[in-house]
Batch of 4 targets.
Target 1
Amino acid sequence: MTEPRFETVLYERDGAVAILTLNRPEALNALSVQLRAELAAALRMAEDDDEVRAIVLTGAGERSFSVGLDLKELTADPSKLRSATHGQPADSPSKALEDCTCPIICAVNGFAITGGFELALACDVLIASENASFGDTHAKVGAMPGWGLSQRLSRIIGPSRAKEMHFGCQRIDAATANAWGLVSRVVPLADLRRQAVEMAHTFSAHDPKIIAEMKRVVDRGYALPFGDGMELEGAAARDWNSSATPVDVSKTGR
């Protein structure tokens, strides 16, 4: 298969893993209108490819995953701020991330700020390089988050810490993010991509249908009260297990 070509997103395949790289390192991978649309298209392309079972999302360069919306672009045309949250769903990377049924690993290679932070939180697993940092500057620039930051962050690190980040507009480093449960691990920058791809291959080795169903139940259940979440899991278990066939344990290597 010929790998698709975009101007602001690199799309690579490593077996069953699609590797998507935000490719504006000269602008710290700021999310221009073009990059947002191309990232959404690349995510949909990976989702529609039956051979892709996991995705790694990262940024080009050693300084930044993404610093959020392109402020130079917004200064030149303020209407583009509205298009980021009220534009066509087909051009929304946040919506494309939410719609992906396969697992997405975000390899955070530096700054993950504001909109870039939101994209990272929309992924399933976050791995951070030692030089990574996370921050929300919505209050500083005078814009409201529209890709889930106000809801996801507080559910992960608690409302007090989340409000400190929202109101203070200060960054936290990778070690703090790890201590707060924001990322699953912190690794040297030189090892980040390798470890993210290895994790993706581990995920891709399992039945993509059950991985997708587990992802659905976790994501939907996380937004529900505990009792409702247990009912959701119970219903999913009854539906899935009633049609499941016995697994040959010796073949799975369990």
Note: Confidence is low (pLDDT under 50) at residues 248-254.
Target 2
Amino acid sequence: MDKSALQKKLVKMLGKDKVLYDELDLMYYSYDSSFLTKLEPGNPWAVVMPRSTEEVQQIMKLAFDNDIDIIPRGAGTGETGGCVALKGGIVLDLSTWDEIVEIDANNMQVILRPGVIHAHLNKELAKYNLFFPPDPGSSQMCTIGGMVANNASGLRAVKYGCTEQYILGLEVVLANGDIITTGGMKARCIKNVSGLNLTKLMVGSEGILGVITKIRLRCWPRPKGRGIAMAVFDNLDDAPATVLDV
């Protein structure tokens, strides 16, 4: 299938409002926050903006049957070129799919779609005196789906760890269009693994194993207070040793 035929097929499948193929629009998706992609940008053949698991499934089946690359993309805040189409293909823009499906305050869990912005999630969780601890520097822009796909962390990683420690279950669309759920996606159990831990496998896989369409994560109670302190050390070894002691 050539580029023109693919674009027409996607428009027929999803509608004009969910497909981009104008050269100026595609240029926006030709780079991320990395320096290298600005020097060597890569234009996709089309950009699609699905808002349901079924739409993602249709796109994946079409790409699979025609041997076309799929490149999942969140907010494009990554610095490794992972969401850039180097050889054409379809960019799957999930940033507009920003629904918080459920906040279960009693069990300190959230179900959401991949396009939810990290800072927006914590703003909503604050209403329940909860928060999602991983704290990337791009909090105001990055999506939870992107954080899961890259196992993001941030400045609070020493105390709270990385994203993978908070993911209880996932809904994922595989390359051939099959839909799977992992871990506790359909339950509220903290421990919900029998055999291979597919949730851990998917977290940090950067889209090479499938497209994440729904996430169940756990939250923590918000700290009662926050503060900033500066410490000065005489040598480099004392600094990390003090962090570990704290």
Note: The first strand starts at residue 19 and ends at 20.
Target 3
Amino acid sequence: MAGKMMNNRYMQLSWAMMKTGIIGYGGGPSVIPLIRYEAVTHYKWMEDEEFGEILALANALPGPIATKIAAYLGYREKGTFGAIVSVLAHIIPSGIAMILLLTTVQFLSSAAFIQGMIGAVTPVIAVMLGMMAYEFGERAVKGLGKYVGFGFFAIAFALLQGVHIHPAIVILLFLCYGAFHLRTVAALQRRKQQKQQRSVQKKEGVTRGMD
């Protein structure tokens, strides 16, 4: 019975988003690897490439990133009602906990054991973020090429850390360039193929003339 319930897509969405909402200490950056694990590795709702695209678009839009991704996952799997279920499952557990602990939250925020819990989980979150960043970077280099990929890393770092441009603006700039880049590459490939076809046709014409 329990197995059948967990095979239900609504139950999967609810359980996955509930876990990420409860375990995700520290906000968006700590929740993203958890959601990625549930969506890509555990339930295999999508490929890593699609999750990376969702992450980029979610960063460019206003509002909490984890809630936006939860809404997209729910909508992708079960439509509008799935989005509602997914978002509620993500925010209700932590919301209830916040309400129940509201009177003692000031005390707990400075309590030694709470600080110890946050300090202990921080390295785990850092490793998960690092693994995700490495995998995304590896795909970027494969998709754009070594030199363009590493060049983009340097430009993004300079814009975000040096110039301190808002991440949403940087993401939109790179999205626009990405669309231009793909169109340019596709056009160059078409020209190359046409050139090769003309060359083959020319050779065939010469061969027929000799015959």
Note: The chain has a mean pLDDT of 78.
Target 4
Amino acid sequence: MHGKLSSAAAGLLLVATTAWASTQMPGKVLRVYGPGGPHRALTECADLYEEKHGIPVVVTKALPHDLALRLPEDGDIYYGGAECMLEEFVQRNPGVLDLSTLERLHPRRIGIIVRKGNPLNIRGIEDLHREGIEILDVKLENMRHFHSHPSGKNRNVRYFEYTGQQGVAAWLSNPRIDAWVTYRSWHLSLEESTDFVEIPGEHAQRFTPIAVTHKTPHREEALKFLAFLKSDEARKVFVKHGWD
């Protein structure tokens, strides 16, 4: 009789625990929003974090105007492609991010994507001013100061896109593009058709900013995820995707 009661009690406990988990876990989902550039690396880190800690992390890429809508609604964490992107978001959307939680994640190298074999022998940014070189510029990356001419605008900038992913599509579809000043991470997406000419120096490195929102109901868990992103394990993921 005692054994039957113990089994029944254990069964009730299991049912109760399962019911509690089913109601509590949906509220534990961390929602992370930002642009497309770091999306793959962050998604892989999110999967690792869920495996280790059992907390789902959903990483969603969005354009700036969509981020302004989504983050105040249900966002726990914001990430940017570079610090200038976070600064612009904060300026346009004051009060959304808790800047006391701001972290600068692993740096990303800037360089020049050129056609495979570098047929125009582009060795540095000074070569981008040579006559006949046609350059792609991606607005959200804010790279114009790298290829601008000292006397003003570089007339070799002929093609314009808004996002890095649109830049990749343009590179693949338009063989007239000779050069694109961008991050090494995009070179990895185009490795079969491009070489990467690294721009040396700290001025050609940009960190990936990330911060918790003021309205998150999961502040403690969000801060733990940020701490995980700074770990050696997470850094290896970023390096695999083109970060330094």
Note: Confidence is low (pLDDT under 50) at residues 1-25.
